[in-house]
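Below is one record:
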Amino acid sequence: MTRVLMVVSAADKLVLADGSEHPTGYWAEEVAASHETLTAAGVDVDIATPGGRTPTVDDLSLSDKGGVDPEDADRFRAYLATLEAELGKPLSLDDVDPSAYDAVYIPGGHAPMADLVDDPELAAIVSATDSAGRPVVALCHGVAGLLGAKGEDGWLFGGRRMTGFTDTEEQQGGYGDAIPYSVEQRMREAGGVIETGEPWSDTVVVDGTLITGQNPQSSVSTAKALLARLG
């Protein structure tokens, strides 16, 4: 059976640019819709976090304050409830053998900006997966989890086409200049070839085995792009 490692941030707060702390977590749709799309196609998905810590869902991702329709929020909440065991006791990244998986999938929410961006175990997993020619997938702020992977000449993904949560969406989404850094600018500065769609559009960029989605609205399409690659 095809196996995918879904790496979920375990951070529950984000230190903003002014030094204050803001509650955060993974974005419900990005985990729920991605997981559901993959498993419905017969893929076996394992969930892992740094240190095997239980991840926290961002309350905004289940609220109209976060731009989420109440019916969608109820659907995501119900699906996440079916993952209670997996989310409650995820694998620890330092126990993961990347060769056991056909792909790595990193959903977002602002939380990856706090703990996945500099996690050495994740960087090693991503590097091993990419070097083996297997897909590496990142969605929205999950692209922060790619930034720690280094190659011989700098960033492992330098020169590759990709997308991620845009500065425009950051401004429109409420954080604006309060974020500690821009994932879009970090990718550009590291050498990524950034391609963005309209704000909040369903946008996926595929460059060989690197698959990236722009925002929560791209969750299902990002998972389907991975299925197409694996298929």
Notes: The chain has one domain: 3-230. Helices lie at 28-40, 70-82, 84-88, 112-115, 120-131, 167-172, 183-190, 219-230. The first strand starts at residue 3 and ends at 7.
